[in-house]
Amino acid sequence: MREIPPDSRSQTATISELLSRGKTLLQGTTPDPRREARLLLRHASGLGDAQIMAFPERQLTAAEAERYLAWVRRRARHEPIAHLLGWRDFRQLSLRVDANTLIPRPETELLVDLALDLMPAGGVRALDLGTGSGAIALCLADERPAWSVSASDESAAALSVARDNAQRLGLKLRLLEGDWFEPVTGERFDLIVSNPPYIPEQDPHLAQGDLPHEPRTALAAGDDGLDDLRRIIREAPAQLTPNGRLMLEHGHDQGPAVRALLDAAGLIEIATHRDLAGRERISTARRGGDTG
């Protein structure tokens, strides 16, 4: 399709024309270019889906059309939609995200579900390791206001995003900078959750789709993807209260290895839970109670 000159685009660009152009540019980038073109147009214009569908002949302003086409071109280069818009919905929260944080994904919501289901409604000290945008910790703070929720991350830039999200949402969250358990040495928690890096360093998927635009340190962890999971599991028992629980997200094929690591660490009630696609995604375990 012929490129529309910048000086005439805003004078002739209707919703229908812009959607057609966006769909064409996004071919091969996404499995559903039509849906993504409409999503970007909705946010560039401020119009709802009903208005977009009912008035395809409506012309957008120059600023709206230029913003939309700029987003489409960036998306065609595989830049994540969450980075284009600056936010991502996760459960009931809209969270600011940027290139310093992992983009929250739907499968991680299972981790929140399990924490809410398996822990009491009050009196829980919870820790989210590698919090990134704060997605998991903020959902726990929002849905369990009686809990005391802490979150750590070694990235000051990621913690800045999490802090902004907490302040904007009016949620209380203790944010700590440091590598995994380092900032909470000597403390004990009733619940420890984490979505750590778990992709092998040489996995070809790291060069595909949205992943090159996300921080590699939040994605990859050693030759087999288990380096950070090993460390968390090894150190977790000393940070858990008696009967405290550990809940970890991992790769769909890492369930057996993670269960073995949990068992070797002396944890009990080890279980792996499947996501909506039927893949092993979250493993949970409990520290035993005091016996003496």
How would you describe this structure to a colleague?
The longest helix is centred in the N-terminal third of the chain and has 15 residues, at 62-76. The protein contains 11 helices and 9 strands. With 292 residues, it is an alpha/beta fold. The protein starts with 5 loop residues before the first helix and ends in a 6-residue tail after the last strand. Strand 1 and strand 2 (93-96) form a beta hairpin. The strands form 2 sheets. A 7-stranded mixed beta sheet has the order 5-4-3-6-7-9-8, with helices on both faces. A two-stranded antiparallel ribbon has the order 1-2.
Brief overview, please?
The chain is α/β, with parallel strands linked by helices and 292 residues long.
Taking Cα atoms only, what radius of gyration do you get, to the nearest Å? 22 Å
What is the residue-averaged pLDDT? Answer: 91
Strand order of the largest sheet: 5-4-3-6-7-9-8
Gross morphology is: elongated
Number of helices: 11
Please summarize the sheet with the most strands. 7 strands, mixed
| Sheet/helix structural class | alpha/beta
The span between the termini is 76 Å
Helix fraction?
A: 25-40%
Strand content: 15-25%
* Total strands: 9
- Stretches where pLDDT is under 50 for at least 5 consecutive residues are 1-11
- Helix and strand pattern: HHHHHHEEHEHEHEEHEHEE
